Amino acid sequence: MSARGGGGMGFFATMAEGIAVAFDSLGANKVRSGLTILGVTIGVVVVMVMAAAITGINRSFSEMMAPNGITTFWVAHFDFSSMTGGGPLDEEEPAYFRNPPLDPEWTRDLGRLPGIQSATPIVEMNSDFGGAYEASVGADRAEISLMGVGADYLEIYSGDVAQGRWFTHSEAQRRVPVVVIDSAVAVDLFGQRDPVGRDIRVGAGRNAAMFRVIGIYRMPANLFSGLATHYVWVPFATADKFLSISDRTISFIVRPEPGADAQAALDVTYARMRQLRGLEPAEEDDFAIMTQDQMLNVWNQLTGVLFAAMMGLSSIGLMVGGIGVIGIMMISVTERTKEIGLRKAMGGRRRDIMWQFLVEASTLTLLGGTVGMLLGGGLVWVLNQLTPLTAIVPLWSIVAALVASALTGIGFGLYPASRAARLDPIEALRYE
Q1: Residue 150: which of 128, 183, 173, 126 has the closest Cα?
Q2: Closest among 111, 109, 77 to 250, alpha carbons compared
Q3: If I label 70, which of 63, 78, 189, 208 is the partner at 20 to 30 A Cα–Cα?
Q4: DSSP at 138
Q5: Closest CA to 76 of 396, 290, 375
């Protein structure tokens, strides 16, 4: 520590000397200083990578929802977006599960309401054993997610039919055994052969049925389309005839007309659903209408859990780094006791000495934060190259990492700095 400048030092001079001493200490004690900043580095890496991953996942989810139109909403037999309809845990079944199922024929009525472009039933089916369905062609088999949907499904969900076509309203009404598959199912069951016009068997044993493949559907490009594969779509009425549908899992997708007032569409649908349910004015709803905003809120709650985990892991790393700062700064105070005594004997003020040690501590942790940002940026790049996730480093994570690093140095360096500032100059000059 230099004694230049007499008693007091200017702000910038103090900053410059604190930074210089920090780098001198880092060079003289590479292993000790490296271990000190390691915890801060790990904490910052966690913040950078997880924030980038969460931001990328949220953007992909928004992109997945966007093609449906911001006014599209869902009618279900209970509010699965909040799960607020459940009863106490000791009940035999949740209260919402006792709601009557939705009648898929009601979609015709809803589709004729003013301001409504289309309404279609949708259900994701499970086999009789509660697992996924299986599709097969001879000895080739594939586990699939089986969706029963209306013929106007493509009017609501984007994507395109890569080969063949989608099923028509006539085929749906006549319960024709036709299906549309995705490319993963096509490859597993047919290899390089054209699947359009060929038959597949869905189900197992006596519950299996033969279906004619009429098209290959390609989902909109996003993170989840890369993860969600092996889908088969069948006309809703056909699924009801040939396969097992749980009426408790039926829901409706309703799309207002372009330019229609979204709230008016919600209101007219809500009123008609109460009529279809036969509810009296004083009776509570036994169905739920969910908007995209509600669905996004549910998703944000899920990613909020990941964010909380991120903060917890990052805090542990910063805590470890902070403890290291206390150790290295206490050693630094001990090694430079005579210099501190000389400084105080020449009129050095407590606040100048304390501030210089705080600058030194925060410089070390900021250095750890900078290294963490570089490593985190590299890991994000690797994540983008090797996975379907488009990780995006948000600006707030960079600012938060730097601020947290600096505050860790200041907070944990406060005790060593205070101890250095309180040293008695005479005792310090006698120190050997």
Answers
A1: 173
A2: 77
A3: 78
A4: T
A5: 290
Instruction: Tell me phi and psi for residue 65, to 5 degrees.
Output: -80, -30
Picking from 236, 242, 184, the residue whose alpha carbon sits closest to that of residue 210 is 242
Place of tokens 């996975």: 387
The span from the CA of 261 to the CA of 263, in Å, is 6
Backbone angles phi, psi at 381, to 5 degrees: -60, -45
CA 431 to chain centre: 57
pTM listed for this prediction = 0.60
| Token code pair at residue 157 | 């969900």
Bridge-based pairing of strands 209-218 and 178-181 is: parallel
Q: Which of these, 252, 281, 253, 254, lies nearest to 265 by C-alpha position?
A: 254
pLDDT by residue, tens only, the chain of 432 residues: 444 444 445 555 656 665 666 566 555 566 666 767 787 888 888 888 888 888 877 777 666 665 555 578 888 877 665 554 444 444 455 555 677 888 888 988 998 999 888 888 888 876 554 556 888 898 888 888 888 988 888 877 767 888 999 999 899 889 999 999 998 899 999 988 999 999 999 876 667 889 999 999 987 665 545 555 788 999 988 988 888 777 777 889 888 888 788 889 889 999 999 999 888 888 888 888 888 777 777 777 777 777 787 778 778 878 877 887 787 778 777 777 777 777 777 776 777 777 777 877 888 888 888 888 889 888 888 888 887 777 888 888 888 888 888 888 888 888 877 877 777 666 656 665
Helices (H) and strands (E) in the chain, counts: 14, 11
Between CA 341 and CA 423 the distance in angstroms is 7
Q: Which amino acid is residue 124, in one-letter code? A: E
Tell me the C-alpha distance between 61 and 53, whole Å. Answer: 12
Q: Where are the beta strands (DSSP E) in 104-235?
A: 116-125, 133-137, 140-149, 160-164, 178-181, 199-202, 209-218, 231-235
Please report how many Cα atoms fall inside a 13 Å half-sphere around the Cα of residue 213, on the Cβ side. 29
Query: Would you list the DSSP string of 320-366?
Result: HHHHHHHHHHHHHHHHTHHHHHHHHHTT--HHHHHHHHHHHHHHHHH
The CA-to-CA distance between both ends of the chain, in Å, stands at 17
